[in-house]
Write the structure tokens for this entry.
Amino acid sequence: MKVILHTDRSGQLMVYVAKKDLEEEVINQTQTNDSHIFTLANGWELSVAGLGDPIKTPQTVQAKRLN
């Protein structure tokens, strides 16, 4: 699914899923060899491959829902 990564006014990383009209705060980030795993405030875990470090925002990326 396509998601938009952006930062809010306080500098917190946020994820917006347009198809679900869902915007959630990222509460935890884990980096693996080839992807970032984002845990959202609603409990979803999303895997996003190919992000740089630091993450540039805003940007639209392809994410895979893990749970």
